[in-house]
Amino acid sequence: MMVFNNTTEAARIIRTLAALRKTNDALAFGDFRTIYTDYNVWAFERAFGSHRLLVVLNNGPEKNLTLSLNWSDGTYRDALYGADMVVNRGKALVTLPRNSFYMFHIEDDQNEPLIGSVTPYIAQPGQKILIAGAGFGKSGTVFIGGEKARIISWNWSQILVEVPRLKTSDAWVPVYVEVDGKDSNRVKLRYYSENEIPALVVNGSNLTGGLRSMETFLSWRSRGISSNRARAITSPLSHFQTARSFQSSSTAVFHGANLSPLTLPSMEKLVLRSSSIRSHR
Fold it and tell me: Which of 154, 217, 219, 250 is most buried (most C-beta within 10 Å)?
């Protein structure tokens, strides 16, 4: 069995960041913004509600750095090495030794609900999704596509709910949390009705008809077609080399395919996505 040395500098940094992630929501969910950059120095901020992180990296000689930073006046201590940064009237002053990096942080109270993630972000009616974030309090209401979702469990940072049945043709629906009359930010959930089959993904395929070097995304409305019937529809795709189930029985990922669209008679919609598509005429 491999034995890891937990006394190295890298191990110490990992332990420090792991502990900080438990107390600072910005490390898990924060937006990203570059504050300063030059040939040797990069400073960026992550923010999530009232939690903030400032990371400063120096890959060159010692440097005295002044940053424009919207933090309260005061002295802030780096989480990794204990260095100080002084903020006064929107200006932050920090001295960076040669080849150094610092991480300064703020953890004020999160007084309003704020969603950081929804997992999974693709769901059907009756499926459970986990909403993670901060400021959820002890109870409240979750709205998905304008409908109230059934609450399964609730705590300050996580809410487990059941996706309601929606009367909508929208592919993406908003999700938000209401606590004591305050609404959170809105995030998007990819909503599939009960008679839809989520996805069939073809990676690295050659499509008969002239599209290469592509990722093909096939999505169709099944008009009540069951998962077993959907798999039967795709059975003529005899050139697939490998196939595996992906998250649910109605989703599959195929690799190394040579596919003709004529083998997909039951699909209403064919969408081709690629960063590199070449057309052969």
Answer: 250
| Tokens encoding 233 | 């529809």
Contact status, residue 147 vs residue 153, Cβ threshold 8 Å:
no
Domain 9-107 shares a fold with domain 114-191: yes
Cα separation of 156 and 160, whole Å? 12
Q: Which residue has the higher pLDDT, 255 or 101?
A: 101
Which residue in the block uniquely carries the two structure tokens 């995030």? 187
Domain range summary for the chain, segments of one domain joined by +: 9-107, 114-191, 196-279
Domain at 9-107, CATH class: mainly beta
Distance CA 51, CA 11 (A): 25
Report residue 269 as tokens.
């919609």
pLDDT at 193: 84
Low-confidence winner among 24-33, 40-49, 85-94, 229-238 (lowest mean pLDDT): 229-238
Q: Does pTM top 0.70 for this prediction?
A: no
CA distance linking residue 277 with residue 210, whole number of Å: 9
If DSSP codes are grouped into helix, strand and coil, which group holds residue 83? coil
Of residues 272, 205, 273, 265, the one with CA closest to residue 239: 205
Q: What percentage of the chain exceeds 90 in pLDDT? A: 64
